[in-house]
Every structure is written in C-alpha cells, then in structure tokens.
Design goal:
This protein is mainly β. The chain is built from 3 helices and 14 strands. Strands 1, 2, 3, 4, 5, 6, 7, 8, 9, 10, 11, 12, 13 and 14 form a 14-stranded antiparallel beta sheet that branches. The chain is globular, with a radius of gyration of 18 Å. 44% of the residues are buried.
C-alpha cells in the first residue's frame, strides 16, 4: 500500500508526474525468465516500491505470483496460452525488496473447470510469499445479479492524482494512474472520518487485464488514513477473486474496513470496470499504522 497522505487535486487527463514513466510499467514488472521448468526469475524494480526503502507493493506481488502460477500451468499442460486467474491467495512472510527474486511452482491439480498451482516466491534464500493460484476461464456472459457501489465511470474533474504530491513521492505513485475521490479522502483536508476510500486506477501504456485487476485490489492508500493513522500498512494476507476480464478504461475502486482493533486492519476492495461490471473482489489483513 502507498503510505504518503499528502496529495493535491489536478486534472484527470494527464498527470505531468507520470511523464518519466516509459512503456508499460505493469507488464514490464511481470517479466519472467525460466532457469528450469516450474522455476522462474523476476526482477523487482524500484518503480513499484511503496516507500523510499524499496519495499515492494503487495498488489504487484500478488499479480507476479499469479503470472508465475499461470505460466507454470501452461508449461505443465503444453498450452501456448495462459488461463485466467480466478483466485489468488497469498501470505506475506517478509516485505520483499527491490532486486531479483526466484519463484518456485508446483501444479497441484489440473481440472476441466479449475486448476490449482502452489507458488513460493523467495529472496535472499528465504521464502517471502507463499500463494495458491486457482486458474480457469473467466465468464463472458453478463452477471445475473450484483450489488455494487455507485460511482462514475471516470474520475471527476476534482479527482486527486496520487502522483501530485508536494514533496518526496513513493515511487509507486507514478507506476500507474491512481485518482482519489475527494469526497471520501477527508484526511487530505486534515479531517477524520470513516475508514472508506473510493478512487480510480488505470495502467500506463496498456489496458487493464485480469492480472492488473489483482493489483487494483490493493492500490488505494490504507483506509486508516481517514482515522488519523497515516503510514505503511504492510499486508499479512491477501486474497483476490477475479470475476471478469476488465473492459478498456478506468477501473473504479471502493475500499472499506469492517473491523479495526489493536495492530490489525482488514480491508475489502471492490473493483469495477468502465462498463460497470465487477472484475475483482479482494480482502486483506494488514498491520495498522500507529495512532497519531
């Protein structure tokens, strides 16, 4: 999660701060090489770090282990196409740093509807993330029923880009376009309120896909910012269900906490695409920043 609470309102057309980002930072971050079957190497870039110490973003890591699991399954079955991520559940054992990581996979089940791959991401000879990736084919048919928050398909004119911070920025702020809804981000005005945040996200240089939907499930600042508790909220466990392939354009986001107590924080994220379709549901358990 990003940790800087100081943001400024700007136009939602093209934030100047993202001009230095070249190409497609999201797809580039998921690049894998295969030293041997079922084992992959990836390079964690500072582009996706959440602070000045190079700690990597939890949502990006979820997409990375998801990509590794899908790749291993395709190799195992001899397919030239990746399946879709239906669900990815990860436990974060340590906060990964910028630099190389190795990802070991084990295909647990190959099924007609759903297949399962166990994934372990390692760094400095230690396990960093353990995950289970469930893969299959996402439905193309419309949802039969859904109850979703009402949000505009695009950010409003007074939306707040996270790339427009006055002062030092976490690198993540320019890795993709994230816009906050000022009506829910009271902490930006020094106000305190409910642990609810809404916003919008889109990748730079490409359109959202199911793996980007996994990232979107963890892209907003911690909702505890609205309760006067800014700071890094490291993810302990994160599970995301992908429900549909995102349509091109902005993804709408709503993050809500149901229970906050002691050192622990839960967050539920709803991700909706530009057509109004639910594309991801994510729930995580995180360590809460200290009260100020």
């Amino acid at each position: 999660m990003p940790s800087s609470p100081a943001l400024n309102a700007v136009s939602t057309d093209a934030p100047a701060d993202t001009a230095e980002v070249i190409g497609a930072p999201f797809s580039s971050a998921l690049a894998l090489t295969a030293p041997r079957p079922g084992c992959y190497r990836a390079e964690l870039s500072n582009v996706w770090s959440v602070n000045q110490h190079g700690k990597q973003h939890g949502g990006l890591m979820l997409a990375l282990v998801g990509k590794a699991g899908l790749t291993a399954l395709a190799e195992h079955t001899g397919s030239d196409q990746l399946l879709d991520p239906l669900a990815v559940s990860a436990s974060y054992l340590r906060a990964p740093d910028t630099g190389p990581v190795w990802i070991d996979t084990e295909v647990v089940k190959v099924g007609r509807t759903a297949s399962v791959v166990a994934v372990t991401l390692r760094q400095h000879d230690q396990p960093v993330i353990t995950a289970t990736v469930t893969a299959g084919r996402l439905p193309d048919a419309p949802m039969e029923w859904s109850r979703l928050p009402e949000m505009a398909a695009q950010p409003p004119g007074d939306g707040i880009f996270t790339s427009s911070v006055a002062g030092p920025l976490p690198p993540l702020a320019t890795a993709c376009d994230v816009v906050l809804d000022p009506r829910t981000a009271g902490y930006l005005r020094g106000e305190r309120g409910d642990p609810v945040l809404r916003g919008w996200v889109r990748p730079i240089g490409e359109q959202p896909d199911p793996l980007f939907a996994l990232l979107a499930g963890d892209i907003l600042p911690p909702v505890l910012f609205n309760m006067g508790r800014p700071g890094w909220a490291p993810t302990v466990q994160l599970t995301a269900l992908v429900r549909a392939r995102p349509a091109p354009g902005w993804l709408r986001l709503e993050s809500v906490a149901d229970s906050i107590g002691g050192a622990w924080l839960d967050e539920d994220m709803t991700v909706i695409d530009s057509t109004g379709r639910l594309v991801c549901q994510a729930r995580q358990l995180a360590l809460a920043p200290l009260r100020t």
